[in-house]
Design brief:
By secondary structure, the chain is mostly helical. The protein is built from eight helices and no strands.
Length: 146
C-alpha cells in the first residue's frame, strides 16, 4: 500500500465509525468480533487506511444501531482545512469524547470556564497543535502572527 494516499471519504467514514464505537463503549476488539475482523482491521478502517466494504459497513451499522448513512456525515465538506478544524474530527481524537462527557457532567459554569482556560493554557504552553490558531477571550480563533 506504499504510495497510495487515503481517500477523504474513507477517512470520514472511519472517523465516524470511531466516534460512534466510542459512544457505544465498544473497544476495537469488541467491534471486530461482532463484524468478523481483527482489531487491527478495525483500526485500519478507523484511520481510513483500508476502505470499508458495503457489506461490512452494513454490519457495523447494525452493531452500532444506526443507519449506514450516518457514517457519511461530513462527506459533503471535503476540503482539507474545514475537515481538520471540524468539531466532529476533534471528537475522534483519543480521549476527546471522555473529556466531553466528564465536562458535560459539571454543572457549575465557573468551574467549566476554569477548566477550559486551564486546558487552553496547557495547549498554548505545550504547543500541542501548531497548526491550530489560538482563541481570544470569547473563544473565537485569532490570527497567528509568526
Amino acid at each position: 500500500m506504499a504510495g497510495r494516499s487515503r481517500n477523504p471519504v474513507d477517512v470520514i467514514v472511519g472517523r465516524n465509525i470511531r466516534i460512534h464505537r466510542l459512544d457505544r463503549g465498544l473497544s476495537q476488539t469488541e467491534l471486530g468480533k461482532h463484524i468478523g475482523v481483527t482489531f487491527q482491521q478495525v483500526q485500519k478502517y478507523e484511520n481510513g487506511v483500508n476502505r470499508v466494504g458495503s457489506g461490512r459497513l452494513f454490519k457495523i451499522a447494525g452493531v452500532l444501531g444506526m443507519p449506514v448513512s450516518t457514517f457519511f456525515d461530513g462527506a459533503d465538506h471535503l476540503d482539507e482545512k474545514s475537515f481538520k478544524d471540524s468539531p466532529i474530527t476533534m471528537l475522534a481524537e483519543p480521549y476527546a469524547l471522555r473529556l466531553l462527557r466528564a465536562f458535560s457532567d459539571i454543572v457549575d459554569p465557573e468551574l467549566r470556564r476554569s477548566l477550559v482556560e486551564m486546558a487552553e493554557k496547557f495547549a498554548a504552553k505545550l504547543q500541542t497543535n501548531p497548526l491550530r490558531k489560538p482563541k481570544d477571550a470569547d473563544g473565537a480563533r485569532t490570527r497567528v502572527h509568526r
